[in-house]
Each structure stands twice: as C-alpha cells, then as structure tokens.
C-alpha cells in the first residue's frame, strides 16, 4: 500500500488548480488521464485499486476523485459509497468513468453519490469543464462552511431543524409542449412543485416562495445559446442568484456543455436522459441549494449575534481572528496561498478633531462600504480598531493580493466622503500593509498579522496612501 509520502506528484511551473485522485486498475488509463490533467495544471495522485484509493483519499484529502467503475478488488460504486459514508471524505466530489453504456449502472453510480458519470472514450473538453465546475462549487461550499464553523467555535449554536416544504422547480423550454412533456415525465419521480415557464416568466419579478429553487433550462430556447444567455441573466439577478440551474442539452452538444458549465450551470441533463435520472439530478440540486441556504442563513444569524462592529456592520476582531486561523488551516491542507492586509485611515484623528465624532463615524461607515463592495464574498473584512481594518484573501497569489490592495487604496482615496447634513466633503486616504501565507510552513496567524502590521508602518513612514508588502512575502 502506498502512503502519501511515496506518491510522486507532478507539479507544473504554473499555478496548481487542484489535486485529483485518479483511480483505475489499468496503468495506461491512469497515465493518459494524468497527462490530460497535468496540461490543465492539476496535481494528480494515482491509485490502482479501491483499497488504495480509500486510503489515499483519507490521507491526502484530494479536491476530487476520478474513479473507474470497474476495479478488480472492489467495484468503483462500492468505493464511492464508502467515500460518501466517511465523514473525512464525504465532501470530496466523485466523477465516475465506465466503458459500458449502461443506463442502469449509471443510475447506480449516481445513487451511490457520484456527482457525474462519463462514458469512455472521454471527451476532454467536457470533462475538464465539469471538473472546473465541481471544484468551484466545492470551494464555495467550503468557504461558507468555514464561516459556519467559526460561529460554532465561538459558541453560537446551530438553529433547530426546519420542516422542509416541497421545493419549486421551474421548467423553461422554447416550446410549451416541451416543458409540459418534462413535467409529465418528472411528476411520478418528484414530490416537489413543478411549473412551466417561458423566458419572460423566468425573468419576471418574483418573491419567495415563488422563486424556483431549481431551473431546468433548455440550452436552445428559440435560437442556439438562448438558454445559456437566460442562465447568465438569472445569475445576475439577486432574487434568482442562488437558484440552481440545470441545462437540458441537445444531442451531440459538447461545446454547449462545456460553455454551460463554465458559465455557472450546476448540472447538465441530456435531452434523452431517463426521467429517473432527470429527477435524481434535480433532487441533488435541491438538496445542495437547501444546504447552501442553511449555511448562508447561519452566516446571517451569526452576523447579528455580537460578531459585527455595530457602527460599520463589518465583522469585528472577535470573529476575524478565529476565522483567519481557519483560512490559514485550510491553506495548509490545500497547499494554497492566502493574503492578509492590515489597513489604516491616514490622519483620521484630524477628521474627528476638525469635523467632530459624528462626522468621523460617517467616514468610517462610508469607507467600510467601499471596501466591502470591492472584495469577493469569500474574503474576510473586519474592523479591528478605531480606524483600522483587516482583510484576508483565501486562495490568492501575491500579485493578485497586491492588485486587490491597490484597488482598495484607490477606491478609498479617489473620491472624498460626503458628510451628512451638507457638512462638506472630507478627503480620506488609506495605508496598507500586506503579508502572504504560503500554505506550506506558513507563519502562525499572529506572526502574519504582525508582519502585515509592520508593513503598514512602512507605508505610513514612506508618506502614507500606499501599499507595502511584508518582507517575507516579497
């Protein structure tokens, strides 16, 4: 049995985009997959049988498992079931591969917990797009879960389980009879509410509970690609942004499939798919959406429970430090980098002395809003002192972190803050210290904040309104 120390992992000179465990009892198949994935800058780890795969999955915690259904020591479906039953590996996406075009076998794999099943020979374009989609979804779920675990560690209990009402599924096709046919086929398999919509109905003004939890959208509504454009519009609207979208593919639509996944489709359904498979994929998306909804609600509840600065609405120091420690721990597990910024408003005392503390509070509120609107949802932003803020950027290179810091500096300094009641405009600038955790042998969180803090002092001493990178991050 190989251990993680014995595994030779190929790293490219470019940024690694994820670690994938390849499980196949045929060495040639493993090598072909390894080459395809290395070209896309994935690390690969290989296992030749189910027992080795289970051991490596527990030991190395890959980002995704590519698993052949036919293995010699145990079936790939049994391996998948064991991965999904183990708390240490159940959140790892599993993509299964088989040489046999057997619809019943495919359904068995999906019921075992596989996120997708591909027939051989593999379509490289669609495979890589599917991997990108699954890894993005996993990272988003992990970051939401990270915030939830931070609240738990701070003593905020999880809310009581809520009674789940039937979900709402919107079926969007170019022809009414097509959507009605889907509805008839799905009704014996789903207990959820099914409604048929055209493009205009999907984009109509709606409020919960009338917002579909899942949209099933025909890829080519009227013209080729109409469904993908509709999906992009659904993603851009606040009310439907968190709804899952399954794209119904026409036959032989490999390019459409890849584009749909890269644009944010949660799943793909082939037009000739069995209704039971359609229903399974929809149920899976309903379950994932509800889990995400619960995590977002947990985050929102936590924000209202003494975890925020009452003036700006940002996280406070009590939340920021343990959450930063979790970001650092995740970086150590994944080998990815993260960045920490400590920032301070320049000469803020003179604002309070000249305009009064009410004006100073108005400045802090406005600056907090500017910072928040220029960061990602997964980034951490906290007010940790009077005019001092902390930012943490997960999974970020030094160049990207420096560009973000410069953007934040500009968004604060480029426009003065208007004081309430016509009290005039106050010019404000921001000094920033930046430090990078490399994920492997990184500084302890306290030392990393100290490094960013010293870099901040360097920005102040060099004239303010600038970004300085901590020495070990350069």
UniProtKB/TrEMBL annotation:
EC number, as in UniProt: 2.7.7.65
PROSITE patterns named in the record: GGDEF, RESPONSE_REGULATORY
Positions of the GGDEF domain: 336-472
Response regulatory domain mapped to chain residues: 19-135, 168-286
Keywords: Phosphoprotein
GO molecular function: diguanylate cyclase activity
Protein name: diguanylate cyclase
């Amino acid at each position: 049995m190989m251990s993680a120390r014995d595994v030779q992992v190929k790293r490219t000179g470019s940024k690694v985009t994820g670690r994938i465990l390849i499980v196949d009892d045929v060495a040639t198949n493993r090598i072909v997959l390894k080459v395809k994935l290395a070209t896309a800058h994935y690390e690969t780890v290989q296992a030749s049988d189910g027992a080795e795969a289970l051991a490596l999955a527990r030991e190395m915690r890959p980002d995704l498992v590519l698993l052949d259904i036919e293995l010699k020591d145990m079936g790939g479906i049994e391996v998948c079931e064991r991965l999904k039953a183990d708390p240490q590996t159940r959140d790892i996406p599993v993509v299964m591969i088989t040489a046999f075009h057997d619809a019943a076998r495919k359904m068995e794999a999906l019921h075992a917990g596989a996120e997708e099943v591909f027939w051989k020979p593999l379509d490289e374009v669609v495979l890589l797009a599917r991997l990108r989609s699954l890894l993005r979804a996993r990272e988003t779920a992990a970051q939401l879960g990270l915030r939830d675990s931070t609240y738990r560690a701070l003593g905020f209990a999880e809310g009581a389980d809520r009674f789940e009402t039937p979900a709402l599924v919107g079926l969007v096709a170019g022809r009414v009879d097509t959507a009605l046919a889907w509805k008839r086929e799905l009704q014996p398999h789903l207990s959820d509410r099914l409604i048929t919509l055209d493009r205009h109905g999907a984009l109509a003004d709606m409020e919960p509970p009338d917002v579909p939890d899942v949209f099933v959208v025909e890829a080519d509504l009227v013209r080729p690609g109409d469904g993908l454009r509709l999906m992009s519009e659904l993603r851009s609207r606040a009310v439907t942004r968190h709804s899952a979208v399954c794209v119904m593919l026409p036959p032989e639509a490999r390019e459409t499939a890849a584009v749909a996944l890269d644009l944010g489709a949660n799943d793909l359904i082939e037009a000739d798919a069995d209704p039971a498979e359609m229903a399974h994929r929809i149920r899976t998306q309903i379950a994932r959406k509800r889990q995400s909804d619960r995590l977002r609600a947990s985050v929102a509840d936590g924000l209202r429970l003494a975890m925020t600065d009452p003036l700006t609405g940002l996280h406070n120091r009590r939340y920021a430090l343990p959450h930063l420690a979790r970001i650092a721990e995740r970086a150590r597990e994944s080998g990815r980098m993260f960045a920490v910024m400590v920032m301070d408003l320049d000469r803020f005392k003179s604002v309070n002395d000249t305009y009064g503390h009410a004006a100073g509070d108005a400045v802090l509120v406005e600056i907090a809003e500017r910072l928040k609107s220029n960061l990602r949802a997964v980034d951490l932003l906290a007010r940790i002192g009077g005019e001092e803020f902390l930012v943490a950027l997960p999974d970020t290179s030094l160049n990207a972190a420096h560009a973000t810091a410069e953007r934040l500096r500009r968004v604060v300094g480029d426009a003065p803050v208007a004081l309430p009641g016509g009290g005039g405009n106050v010019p404000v600038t921001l000094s920033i210290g930046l430090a990078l955790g490399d994920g492997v042998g990184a500084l302890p969180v306290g030392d990393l904040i100290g490094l960013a803090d010293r870099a901040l002092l360097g920005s102040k001493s060099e004239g303010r309104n600038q970004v300085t990178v901590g020495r070990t991050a350069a």
